[in-house]
Amino acid sequence: MKKSIIAATAIALATALGSCSKPLLVTATTLQQMPKSEESFVTVVEKDKLPEGAVKIGSAKAEDNNGRTKAKDCSFDKVFEAVLIKAHEMGGNFVVITNHTEPNKKKLEPCHGLEADIYYAADNQ
User: Helix (H, G, I), strand (E, B), or coil: what is residue 15?
Assistant: First the structure.
């Protein structure tokens, strides 16, 4: 009985602590929604390397909102992943990074920030 109470308490505590972690703020502007494919890949390219016929369908931004959201993990990998996920949700298959801000401890901004334009190209072979 004691073991089950301890286990239940540990699970409740882990759930409570996990719910306190704040997510990154990810915003997007959609110019044109494309159908999302389950098999699609999102490729990061420089703007001049976009395939011919690529159409800008929107933009995405991942940040900690100047420290207001208090994101627990806002490493470059996390903000990069958040932008790629948003691009996939929008139906995009190409991402062009337009701005990257580094953490600035002097300004108490511990998070990376990333802005990107999202594109769709019908034939991306």
Answer: helix
Distance CA 95, CA 118 (A): 5
CA dihedral angle for residue 122, residue 42, residue 79, residue 23, rounded to 10 degrees: 80
- Residues 7-53 have pLDDT tens digits of 333 333 333 333 334 456 788 787 777 777 776 789 999 999 999 99
pTM above 0.85, yes or no: no
CA nearest 56: which of 26, 89, 100, 87? 87
Q: Which CATH architecture has domain 22-120?
A: 2-Layer Sandwich (3.30)
Q: Backbone phi, then psi, for 99, in 5-degree steps? A: -160, 135
Q: Residue 94 pairs with which residues in a beta bridge?
A: 43, 119
Return the DSSP state at 107: G
| pLDDT reported for residue 6 | 36
